[in-house]
User: Fold this.
Amino acid sequence: MAKEVQSQFQEEQQLVVFRLGSEEYGVDILQVQEIKRMLDITRVPKAPGFIEGVINLRGQIIPVLDLRRRFGFPAAERTPDSRIIVVNIGDLVIGLIVDTVLEVISLPKEAISPAPALVTGINNDFLAGIGDLGERLLIILNLEKILAVDELGDLQEFGQQLEE
Amino acid sequence: MLDKSQYLQQFVEETREYLENLNNILLQWERQPEDKGMVQEVFRIAHTIKGMAATMELEEITILSHHLENLLDHVRQGKIKAEGSFFDLLLASVDALASLVQGLERGSTPGKEEIAPLLARLQGFGSGQARSSGKEGEQALSLSFNEYEKKVMARAREEGFEVFQINVWLQPDCLLKRARVYVILRSLEQLGEIIKTVPTVEDLEEEKFTDHFTVVLICRAGEEAIRKTMEGLAEIERYELLALAEPAAPAASSRSPAAEGSSGTKKKTKDKDRMSARQTVRVGIDRLDQLMNLVGELVITKTRLEQLLALHTGSEIEEALKGLGRISSTLQDVVMQARMVPVAQVFNRFPRMIRDMAKELGKEINLVISGEETELDRRVIDELADPLVHIIRNAVDHGLEDTAARVAAGKPPQGRLDLLAYYEGNSVVIEVKDDGRGISLEKLKEAALKGGFITPAEAETMGEEETLNLIFAPGFSTASQVSSISGRGVGLDAVRAKIESLNGTIDVETELGVGTVFRIKIPLTLAIIQALLINLGPEVYALPLERVEEIRRAEEVAIKSIQGKEVITIRGEVIPLVHLREILEVAGEAEGRGEDFLVIVQTEQQRLALLVDDLVGQKEIVIKPLGRLLTRISLWAGATILGDGKVALILDTDYLLSGSNVGREVS
Assistant:
């Protein structure tokens, strides 16, 4: 019994599905900490352009990133459907602003194909793969790459300098 | 299995502490290898580790500490002499134990083969040296004091006397031992008061002893005087002089005994105070963080309550609010104190590091540590370790000369490195001071010119301090050769960045041929500050109040222009004007200009007049980190959560100047 459950887990990936513009995207549910309605966002002057600002998440200050801006899409009005997906990547907690969160799905591993040179409008590096949902296609994101900004590289360098 | 993992973290932490302690005791022992008390101490710790590891079924650690224990037992029995390579082996074993413990934390299980070479050395050492064992009957007489003697000693210490234990070995061919003892005791009595001898004075007078005895002396004369006296006496084969450190008092100070030993003075470490059951509880730093956050929230809520109730002025409400204020500020203090740990925690690692470096570089270095009981926030101490390592490495590698160069320069052959900590106002200062060759300003300028950090014109006009500050420039290096220890042209800028991220400052003083001092200043309390909240359009920002000098209505002050830059004049002083709205790119135009305020702030370099839309007021705010992604933006010292739950950023006024932000051109 336990074995069956385990193998089932291994063959499926659970994804949080959200929408940006007309496309649907997925992120690994294991990286998602929580999904919040829009909160007050405080602008951070001098921050990299795609950082929308910071929010107060139960007393913790969390940076928020506008995925539209990160992907170079035109900006959109916030609507009551707008959400902040709070994700954990490594030891980084960050909020991602999306147009709307649709559902959580389990996708068999074989329904996910490696990122093709497909016209998705976003940088291929950001893709972890494409999910086949029958009539729909799901763009599965590689969050590490999306957050791999220059600032992060600098920080690691800084740590190394100190070690030396 | 579940049981074990539950205790593993505790085991790791405790063993770490033991190992750190062991390291320090070994270093001290190496300096005074005759001290038999040290063997006991080291043996006891090895034994404790073995016991704990066995309980946890950690085979490698058990075996290694068991072998260590065996070796130490040989020393106890006088079969092996504690000298030279013996200490290298012991220190290597401690390193091996430390890395085994570290492995545990990472979840890796080391193979026995990894420690096999070391085990072989430990065993081999025992049998190899056993033949050259020391003389029989040389074991130090163990001393124990009765209550009365302890009291006498405690009183004496209070009054500024020191307590010494003097172990004396008479020459075996000494004829009139009784007379000799009499002379020795009389001579010592000239210096102070003898409170005890082993054997007793009666036994000594009746010659009821072989050829050695022990005297406990209370005096003010100091070690040197005793040595002088002892060396002036005949028929003494040898003697040992030990300063008896304070026994673990009930009101045990936080002073770490291990660190005390490392301060270069010859004190006997009696590390009893950690062993005796103290009334303490081990609490994870994350829990303290949580507590700290909650106290922060409490302060915020209190502030908010004050805002809400400002309209309802009633004496009862006011009184209750005041009470709440008192309680929350006391609570805040208590929580802060709970997080404070002595800097000894980071200082402790340096004696070993410096010993190893000195050996590698062939230098003689006397490390003098003081003020290690000075306390700082635990988080800060953790953060300080790396910068300090860096500075100390620099000092040992570049600052201190080797013995030949020192002698040639007419200096004592042994280099001196001071590591000291002390309180200064609301800050803690940590100094790393060497008596080495100092930093040549000329060479600094040369290197800066070569590296393109400054122009020849700048080099001409640069003052001393400015020149010295070049060493903190990113990528700057003067090291003519790269060694394995330091000098790769990276570092001091990173050190400064780190210190500044802790709200601290670092500066350096140097004198050619005399030495260099690095001085790090860190605020005692980091988490909560008084701030001035200001408005720019709809946005709220916080300015640390300690930087605010005065506030003026903008309409009262005339804005002039000097060399095309906007300035104001207050009491004759010309102060650059900063349009904060522009620097922070606040959307829209300020309306109703007459209402604007000028906030005069002191920055590291100069005064600035910040033009702001409005003042919100003075508040106690909790500083929260902006997180890794944003800490690189030096303009922000952090953020805080306001009474309404919104986030306000805290301006670091020192960085307003970076970039051409000041005094916009008057068009």
In short: Confidence is low (pLDDT under 50) at residues 129-141, 248-278, 480-490, 660-667 of chain B. Residues 2-31 of chain B form the longest helix (30 residues). The domain at 342-439+478-523 of chain B is CATH 3.30.565.10 (Heat Shock Protein 90). Chain B has five domains: 2-132, 147-246, 285-338, 342-439+478-523, 528-655.
